[in-house]
Amino acid sequence: MVFGHGLKSVRLNYKRLGLLVLAILLVVSSWLGIAVARSGLEVRSLHKEGIPLLYLAPERASEVPGVLVAHGFAGSKQLMLGYGHVLAHAGYAVMLWDFDGHGANGTRLQRYELQQNLDVALQALLEQPQVDPNRLALLGHSMGSGIVMNAGIRDRERFAATVAVSPTGANVTPQSPRNLQLQAGSGEGGFVSNAEQLLAQAGGEHTNLAAEQGRELVVIPGVEHITILFSDGSHQAALRWLDATFSRANGSQYRDLTSQRYRDRRMAWYGLHLLGWLVGLAAIAPLLTQPQIPLTTIAPVQRWAGLILAPLTATTGLILLSQRFDLQNLGGVQVGGAVGVWFLIAGLTWLGVIARLPRPTLRTVELGVLLFAILWVAFGAMAQVVWLQWWLIPIRLRVWLPVAIACFPWFLATGIVQENIGVGKRILWWLGQSAALIGGFVLTLNFLPQLGFMFLLLPLFPPLMGILSLVAGLLNQAWVYAIGSALFFGWLLAAGFPLSA
Question: What residues have CB less than 8 Å from 263, skipping those under 6 apart?
Fold first, then answer.
């Protein structure tokens, strides 16, 4: 009997060792993929007049067209790197930057100064020796689309083409900006309609780019406001438009340096990196668990009633608070503070209905902080070079803990209801939690439209809560899960939303 038990332990140890080896292989492969994506490019971080910039260009480039690439609200230069890589591999010099209040730019957001941010980025681009100052173009997403369109109108002779992705608004005409391409995702709804209105205002479809009055609307299938930024269809449509503007044969002389037409697959490598860390967590999870006293049985009606009631009370609470507080700028970040308050009210409501709390220990606190560290690296180490400004500047770091504390009750409640349940029920809780969050935020926006940029979180809830539910199953300890998840989610909110004025 002892021999059988020992053999089982050996097998478990070999299984965990195998998972660790697999995790290492996945993580290393993902970083090699990112390195290959950057091969053949010059990539440099810059600062000019307090604005963080990122410059990409082909190695050994000379007299190539330059493109300014502007992000949208709650975005950053990292979020536009897909366009940056595609254009740079095709022979363009690309300058990206963080607008005031966004990413690593610590200046409080003042919308009337955003055009000045573009002007600073333009000067930085013109200072690069590889750039042909007579061949310049603009590309922007959402908020950034309006800024680049206005720049193309204001300085018509400087910019030969403008690409507006998920366009907002500008006083476009049949003459300016020159060679305007509009893009919108088929799942963006209002942005497609807005793009159609802009196209009509600009004189309708026009294919004569040589006359500098080219006009085009491209609807990218199967994407919405955020996923369009990672769409190869969007990247290639922008490249085709710029190549036609500058009469370039698809930048072939630079593609020869990188073997073939580049298609941005960095998000796939990012997913592989995340998977690797989750596999690694699965390998070490048994070492992190500890015996615990089970809670008194919580009736299913209590669990589900709390989840259903939570978004209703959170929405009601925000409506009442909005009568006395400026929720849009609460806590120094636009919308992010209101999101934290929403989670605080919802979480306390759910805990109140459950009416049971496990007893925390120093060990669970330590393991919760360790879980945060693992999640931080798993999600963020590669995010910094793929899609998100993950390193928090000091002004954002001060926001992190208050927002994390506000989110803690929600994650404690969801950790409690997911303790000691099977895979099937865990999937059900993941779906239920995602539906409650999406429904609650949509309801909130119906009454508080000034918090409209909450909608940026909606596509993130299902995958994010799914991954965190997997983590809850691996650890099966509510306090460990709650501490790690709240610290991680608070970091995500502090990193993403703009600083308020």
Answer: 86, 232, 235, 236
